[in-house]
Write a structure and sequence with these properties.
about 15% helix; 2 helices; mainly beta; UDP N-Acetylglucosamine Acyltransferase, domain 1; 2 domains
């Protein structure tokens, strides 16, 4: 039977091209990332057109899901998930280089379609029930940190927690400059620019503004930007 199918394919250039393309996609997909998955009901839902280069997927826990949509390009990327019921979603045509860090339970990171990065972009969640939501067509430069917590708790003298962890939202078409930091609880409005080296510690939902400095503040209004 195998010989008959082989002869049929060889006689039909169209079928041969399709099969060769499928083999190439499978080879490209399977050879470009390492994975280490421990636990139950963990799921990788990766479109065959996604491109991986020097990537690692490391999961330790149960019921975690990684979704990579079509035409994503992932280079020098590490996905580290430790806990249960976490979700990572990379929508269509995302280009990413850096680290996704999810340690906790029921965390979510989602990157909107067409969003791109240069190198060494780190999105980090380390407590339960937190999320980082990045909109469509955002542009990240390099050496950027986005996190939802301070890593260590701080209390007042009565024992009350004063640095509660909070989710982060970056809306559509936001340009984030080199060496910027987006801290816990921040929402960034659409069509904004975060200047190089900015440390954004509070939300700026106003659109079409430039945010710069440490701490970040609005330095210019009524702007837009193109790639």
């Amino acid at each position: 039977m195998k010989e008959k199918i082989k002869k049929l394919v060889n006689k039909n250039p169209f079928l041969k091209d399709i099969i060769d393309e499928m083999r190439e996609k499978k080879k490209r997909f399977s050879s470009k990332f390492d994975k280490n998955i421990i636990g139950k009901e963990n799921s990788l839902k990766i479109d065959p057109t996604a491109f991986f280069n020097n990537c690692v997927i490391d999961i330790d826990g149960n019921n975690n899901t990684v979704i990579v949509d079509k035409n994503c390009q992932l280079n020098n990327l590490k996905i580290h998930i430790q806990g249960n019921d976490n979700l990572l979603v990379l929508n269509e045509s995302v280009k990413f280089n850096g680290l996704f860090w999810l340690t906790g339970n029921k965390g979510k990171i989602e990157i909107g379609a067409g969003t791109t990065t240069e190198y060494n972009v780190m999105l980090q969640i380390s407590e339960d029930n937190l999320s980082i939501q990045v909109g469509e067509d955002c542009m990240f430069s390099s050496n950027i940190l986005v996190w939802t917590q301070d890593w260590h708790h701080i209390y007042d003298l009565e024992g009350n927690l004063i640095n509660e962890s909070k989710s982060v939202i970056i809306k559509d078409h936001v340009w984030i400059g080199y060496d910027s930091k987006i801290l816990k609880g921040v929402t960034i409005g659409s069509n904004n620019i975060i200047g190089a080296g900015a440390v954004v510690t509070k939300s700026y939902e106003e659109e079409n503004v430039v945010i710069a400095g440490n701490p970040g503040r609005i330095v210019k209004r009524d702007i837009t930007w193109k790639r």
